[in-house]
Amino acid sequence: MARYIGKEMSRVDGIAKVTGKAKYAAEFQISNLAYGFIVLGTVAKGTIKSIDMREAERAAGVIRVFTHLNTPKLDPKFSMVQAPSRATDEQDKSFRALQSDKIFFNMQPVALVVAETYEQARYAARLVKVSYNTEPHTTDTEAVRAIARVPTQAPPLEPPGNPEETMRTAAIETQPLVVEHTLTRGNPEETMRTAAVKVEAEYRIPIEHHNPIEPHAAIAVWQGEKLTIFDKTQGVYGVRAHLASSFGVPEENVSVLSPFVGGAFGSSLRPNYYPALTAMAARELKRPVKVVYTRTQMFTGHGYRPYTIQKVALGAERSGKLSTMIHEVVHNTSNIEEFSDETTLFTRQVYACPNLYAPLKITNTDLPTPTWMRAPGAVSGMFALECAMDELAYALKIDPLELRLINYAEVDPESGKPFSSKALRECYRLGAEKFGWKKRQFEPRSMRDGRLLVGWGMATGVWGAFQMPAAALITLRVDGTAQVASATSDIGPGTYTVMTMIAAEYLGLKLEQVKFELGDTKFPRSPSQGGSWTTASVGSAVRGAALSIGTKLLALANQEPNSPLKGAAAADVEMLDGRLRLKSDPSRFVNISGVMKRNGLTAITETFESRPSEEREKYATLAHGAQFIEVKVDPDVGTVHVTRAIEVTASGKIMNPKASHSQEIGGVVWGIGMALQEATEIDHRYGRIMNPNLQHYHVPVNADILEIETIFIEEDDKIVNALGVKGMGELGMVGIPAAIANAVFHATGKRIRDLPITPDKLL
Ligand code: MOS
After folding, report:
1. Which residue's alpha carbon is nearest to atom 4 within ligand 1?
2. Which among 12, 296, 332, 596 could bridge 365 via Cys, Cβ 3.0 to 4.6 Å?
3. pLDDT given for residue 74 in this prediction
4. How far is ligand 1, taken at its centre, from the CA of residue 234, in Å?
5. What domains lie within the chain, and their CATH numbers?
6. Entry pTM
7. What percent of the chain has pLDDT over 70?
8. Could you give the residue numbers annotated as active site?
9. Beta bridge partners of 625
10. What is the pLDDT of residues 505-551, one digit of tens each?
11. What top-level branch of life does the organism fall under (predicted)?
């Protein structure tokens, strides 16, 4: 019987976090530290004409002002790219600061002022005067999409006669639409033409920014050719590789430490420009340097969810059976490199539908490069698809939940493979029951609470059950304590806790006898924390390392003549409370400390690398969920409140229900923010973000969050991995924006297809 796995556990690092003992990147105390402050540019495109830094250099405490004129070149040859759907190394074209006079986006770093104190650096940064040769820019994905063409296709539109407009159009015409990929199944064109019932609509998601509480920060310390850097990151190995190549030093010369991360959500999956910038300054000045982004600098200092335009057309029989799905996506990237959000990734697998056409196109804009942001691609793609399903339900006059059930995918529609497990039907059933869905009146504007309009909406959520290669080590000491380590990260989901639980479970120790460490390149290699794959990946490695220790102990025990475990197979032993015993007969055991002492060992260390099994390849592996939402809309002012949210998810085994519920509640909260509030506003005349702060970039506050209930349907799935764990951190958000938009339609009769659903759109 499991002692820890599956039980409610408080965070093992909780007390350290609330007492300030947990150190975040900027909090490490380093002597002789100098402080860097980033100067941001003020135009969207062009070149730097001149930089006058005389006044800044004369300011009190200033040590040096770095610009592209005095910054060494950083070698961009290597890279780290990890996305849910790809795990390949690609040429690193990511933006690096101060490498040339070229301006790629507004609020691009153009100088770094280093001074004796933070205040001196920040003050002097204002004294740096930069002038530019500007070029026409385009930051508006709508405009690019309207004019740009897919290379090899139709000729460009005639530029209009107005010269200013001609300049703008000229800029836009240089922006090709890159076809990332097209997914096709069956004969979508023909079947759409002949479908009995069709809906077609366009949906829009604005740029959105991760806004973790902890700002991105680094402290770099060089000792000769060796670099130690404290960094806020989701992947210490990625940062190490990035910095080693940037500075032309071997990877083992670079130590990256990131023991605590105050939220990241994808914004620290890539190294970003500041670690190299910080390390560059420290190397040049032969002195430790710290750089911390301001909240404003975070808006161009890491990526963002791209501006996404989606056209969805659905064709169905009168019975509700889908015949065709068309899901066309255009989203933006930068002018520096390509980034794909894989918006259509799950469209292929959600519903049983024989015909599909899903092209994804990417267009260049003069903005920073987007990146993965919680539930990347999935929450965007499912917003459009699940709203379109609701529209289809109304066109057919079929209950929206019923429509999902009619099109339930019993096997993976893309590959025909069976699912390793899929409890989505049970999620729908239980969610509907808890919510009281059958009391829903079908017609929009048919439910009220006094003067408020009441709307009930639902949607489906989906995410992958990803697993990546990962390694962990365990040192079991003769005193019955264990050190467990892996270079993963804990950006908040409770990785410290769950890894401690897994190790304690398989080592048969008490929780407090196990110490798990992460976030340091001195530990075995793990993937970046992202894609909701950490527990499946690193957890499997920790389990494997514990089992290896058991195997080692068994071999040692059985070298002894009278071993009670003689003839036992490694699979039939387990460790518990200091004993190695037979699972089939616990009265046959050895004392672990005795075996170690007789062999002269004070500790046993095992490193284990886990990989996804080949067995998985025979199955489709996904995590699912169903979301039911109640909104109340004030018809006079257009305000929307999400008064009730019930989310039922199925993501395999739930290791720690307490932390897992927190993950799913967080997903619902973010879904509410995405549906109703979040948008990065750009003034396209200047190509500049107008709300780079938490005053004007709105996220939910307590007053926006009412009743949320999260429920798990546990799946017994030993195919995904031995722990039976699927990803669940991102899953909780997927489906929520669509369910809210559908509820708003039900309340008001207004179909709002562009997020966020702000009051003005409902009046
Ligand atoms: Mo998550 S967007 O994979 O950090």
Report:
1. 266
2. 332
3. 87
4. 9
5. 26-135+213-264+268-301 (3.30.365.10), 308-466+617-762 (3.30.365.10), 470-611 (3.30.365.10)
6. 0.95
7. 94
8. 730
9. 461, 649
10. 999 999 999 999 999 999 999 999 999 999 999 999 999 999 999 99
11. Bacteria
Report pLDDT for 76: 64
Instruction: Decide: residue 594, CB within 10 A, 0-12 exposed, 13-18 middle, 19+ buried.
Output: middle
Q: Tokens 């079908």, residue?
A: 442
Q: How far is CA 335 from CA 162, 177, 362, 365, in A?
A: 26, 12, 11, 6
Residues of 300-311 as b/e, b for ≥16 C-beta within 10 angstroms? bbbbbbbbbbbb
- Binned at pLDDT 50, 70 and 90, residue 145 comes out as confident
Q: 604: part of which helix (H) or strand (E)?
A: strand 603-610
Mutate to test the pocket of ligand 1, among 374, 728, 733 (most ligand atoms within 8 A of CB): 374
SS3 483: strand
Distances (CA, A) of 194 to 187, 188, 323: 11, 10, 9
The alpha carbon torsion through 225, 231, 237, 240 (nearest 10 deg) reads -20
Tens-digit pLDDT profile for residues 719-761: 999 999 999 999 999 999 999 999 999 999 999 999 999 999 9
Confidence of residue 176 (pLDDT cuts 50, 70, 90): low
Backbone angles phi, psi at 475, to 5 degrees: -110, 115
Q: Report the alpha-carbon distance of residue 534 to residue 470 in Å, rounded.
A: 9
d(CA 472, CA 525) in angstroms, rounded, equals 8
Nearest to 240 by CA among 96, 511, 471, 231: 231
Query: Residues for the chain: how many in total?
Result: 763
The sign of the dihedral angle between the CA atoms of 508, 511, 514, 516 is: positive
Residues 6+ apart with CB under 8 A from 497: 9, 10, 11, 12, 13, 656, 659
- Buried-state track 614-644, b at ≥16 Cβ within 10 A, e below 16: eeeeebbbbbbbbbbbbbbbeeeebebbbbb
d(CA 374, CA 619): 25
Compute CA 235 distance to the chain's CA centroid, rounded to the nearest angstrom. 12
Distance, in Å, from the CA atom of 370 to the CA atom of 72, rounded to the nearest integer, reads: 26
Residue 185 main-chain phi, psi, to 5 deg: -145, 135
| CA 187 to ligand 1 centroid distance, Å | 34
Contact 68, 39 (CB under 8 A): no
Return d(Cα 614, Cα 299) in angstroms, integer. 41
Contact 391, 746 (CB under 8 A): no
Reading the block at residue 441, the tokens are 């009146």
CA distances from 302 to 87, 108, 531, 720 (A): 20, 11, 17, 32
The more confidently predicted of residues 153 and 385 is: 385
| Beta pairing, strands 355-364 & 448-449 | unpaired
Instruction: Give the position, in ligand 1's atom list, of the atom nearest the Cα of 266.
Output: 4
37, containing H or E segment: strand 34-40
Per residue in 351-388, pLDDT (tens digit) is 999 999 999 999 999 999 999 999 999 999 999 999 99
- What is the pLDDT, as a whole number, of residue 166? 44
Q: How far apart are CA 113 and CA 102, in angstroms?
A: 19
- The pLDDT tens digits for 619-645 are 999 999 999 999 999 999 999 999 999
Please answer whether residues 456 and 731 qualify as being in contact, where contact means their C-beta atoms are separated by less than 8 angstroms.
Answer: no
Element counts in the chain: helices (H) and strands (E): 18, 29
